[in-house]
Amino acid sequence: MGKSWKSLFLAAVLLVTMAFVLLSLWSPRGRGYGPGGGSLEASGYAATAVSRLAGAVESVWRAYFSLVSVSAENERLRSALARQNRLITELDEAKVENSRLRRLLDYKGRTASRGIAARVLAWEPGPFYQSIVVGAGTDDGVYLEAACVTEAGVVGRVTEVSPGFSKVLLVTDLSSGVDAFISRNRVNGLLTGAGPGKLSLEYVRKAEDVRLGDAAVSSGLDGIFPAGLSLGTVTFVDKMSMGFFMHAEISPSVDLATLEEVLILLDPPSPLDWRELAPDVRALYEKKARRN
Q1: Where are the beta strands (DSSP E) in the chain?
Q2: pTM of the entire structure?
Q3: CATH number, span 115-269
Q4: What confidence tens digit (pLDDT) does each residue in 256-276 have?
Q5: How far apart are CA 24 and CA 36, in angstroms?
């Protein structure tokens, strides 16, 4: 591109020089010209060619600068559009986050226990051990074995805590256990973790009535989770397996793979008197106490 412009410029200079040389040969005396009668005609053609060439060069330069200006304007508009798109994305994210936090705070207002909202900072997912790290600790009132929930249901329990952070063992972890009821008929069992996205209801006799679609809720008997928190929905029941107990699979109420904020309950459930759960045993206990 640079060489072509140089060639064009040299040609223009050469034509202008030729025009001036021819014009300098014109003689004002008489009707004729200086040496050669066709000098004026030739110089006229040369001047016309130079004028056209100069006009063409000027047009090219104007077009070039116009394109440069348009390109700069396009780049400015592209940058402005990118900024607007980023702003729209940020606003959308803020809207979604505000919606999540509003639901969490609304749920907090409906619970009898105090709670603190905490952001999920890190994941420790695995085939057997599943936990998260959240941004709240002892400085915020968090204690070991504190229940961790969302408005959708149970998330897990605190297993490690420092002044500013806590580790929460998810309910899907193989070592997790929550005492549970089938909401429809109060059939009791132990809800254990069965890996990512899976729960299992254990120690339920085959004679009990457990159906697909039944809701499982926390019983409150474990002293960690308040009663009535959603745990999940029964998705599979097998009463043909060996042993006394059925096998029931539960789909968790909370999508643990997409957690961003959680609510840690700061008030442990009121201790339960096991004798209240077994009136007959309580009667025997009181009778024995009277004898003593």
Answers
A1: 115-124, 131-134, 147-150, 153-161, 166-170, 177-182, 188-193, 199-202, 215-218, 230-238, 247-252, 261-265
A2: 0.59
A3: 2.40.10.350
A4: 888 888 989 888 776 555 555
A5: 12
